[in-house]
Amino acid sequence: MRKFLILIAFLFCSVALFGQVDTVRLGYSVQGHVVDATTGRAMESVHVSVPDRHFATVTNADGDFTIKSDHPVTEVVFSYLGYRTQRVTPTGSPLRVRLIPEALTLDESSIITGDPLEIVLSAIYNTPDRFSKHPELLECFYRETVQKRNRYIYVSEAVARMYKTAYNDGNVYRDRAAIEKSRVLLSQRKADTLSVKMQGGPTQAITFDVVKNHEVLFDKDELSLYEFEMGTPTYIGDRLQFVIHFRPDSKDVEWARYFGTLYIDRELLSFTRIEMAMDMSDPAKAVRAMVIRKPLTLRLSPKELSVVINYRLKDDMSRLEYFRSTMRFNCDWKKKLFKTGYAVINELVVTDVREPAVQIPRAEMFRSSDILSEKAAEFLDPDFWKDYNIIEPTESLEHAIDRLRKGR
Q1: 350: Cα within 13 Å, side-chain hemisphere
Q2: Is the whole-model pTM more than 0.85?
């Protein structure tokens, strides 16, 4: 019945080379830093794009970004949940962008109440008309990181192609991803040899495109197991959103369910953002959902499994924009005294839309059973991402990469 498809396996590390495919040269770039105009704090996961060119990225944990284009960049657009969309003209120097919180002003005709389930059902019903009606080929940047306590022990990155069929066919089984270029860096410490790996890689964003893949959350049977509640409306960019919270009802089921929030465009009644967090009140259910296999003597205590999916609206049509999953759990061996905390974070951002939308050949597709680190080149070439848009590493991640390179 219910399937949760972000999976973890406990495997020994290995590295293999993988083929590379050339892309259009991106000879122009803009760098900068994004902060909250009120507090001055750095803002993570702000969407950064070049209008009319499809190129995009997001800011890192330090609020920094670099965006590249194949033409001179005359304008950069910044958008984030609850903030005004801002358009900035590059000056040649790194930009410092101050995003202003969007004051919520509603006229009397604005609808801010209603039956939340009916709004959700309307958004589901509208999906074929509000999301792409034609196949698309998306270029994406994908990153996996694993932390053991507060120390990074694994970093893997990739540029991927993602082929998405039209949303009106409701079929994710023909959607595919392929790796074009990737690299990996693994801890050389003996104690880190047993590593936590992700199965699924960039295909997770296909699985968790819940607007299209109703098996995850929106099928009729699953919806009946949740309670819905209206929240305070907010803006994403310059568009007002219904905010609807959901939580498991009191029924007892055999699988783990979620708490979360849905953001639905008030005018178009289409999904803009989905936040989900697995219910950890029954650890046994969570473990069954998360773990493929593990040594018998290893005990795992799940702490968090959360997912964020953003969709980008352009010309009244939406497409997948950003995906992030976070898992936190403790592991301990039965004969050892102390537990070890792990955090696994995966991010994917759509950086470009390619033409024509050519299906990915079966021989090239990345399967959900594949492990990215086994298809990646070593972390050596400093110009590895020269012609691609990526998410810039945070300062702590850069330091971790330096330490891992030195085998510390």
Answers
A1: 24
A2: yes
